[in-house]
Amino acid sequence: MYTPNIIEDFHRQLRAVTKSKGAFQSEGALIKILFLDQENICAKWNKPTHNWNRTLAQLSIIFNDRLKLNL
Q1: CA atoms within a 13 Å half-sphere pointing along the CA-CB vector of 58
Q2: CB 17 within 8 A of CB 40
Q3: What is the pTM of this model?
Q4: Res. 71 pLDDT band, cuts 50 70 90
């Protein structure tokens, strides 16, 4: 599974939030803003993962003892 584009896009969206703000009152304020923005970003993810059923089947063979499927 190739994920760097997803990760880079996620980081780009977080950077956009921190760039638009000049400074933060505290580190806690920055963490709160990043957390809330992360929630908004993840809520927009609605694209299905390509070949997920095939990937899940292979993972269940390799990690049978650690992967519990609720089918």
Answers
A1: 6
A2: no
A3: 0.56
A4: low
Query: Measured at the alpha carbon of residue 56, what is the angle toward residues 43 and 44, in degrees to the nearest 5?
Result: 10
pLDDT digits (tens, 9 = 90+) for 17-56: 888 877 888 999 999 999 999 999 888 877 777 788 888 8
Count CA atoms within 13 Å of residue 18 on its CB side.
14
- Rg (C-alpha) for the chain, rounded Å, is 17
Give the phi and the psi of residue 69 in degrees, each rounded to 5.
Answer: -100, 135
Q: Which residues are CB-contacts of 41 (< 8 A; sequence separation ≥ 6)?
A: 10, 13, 14
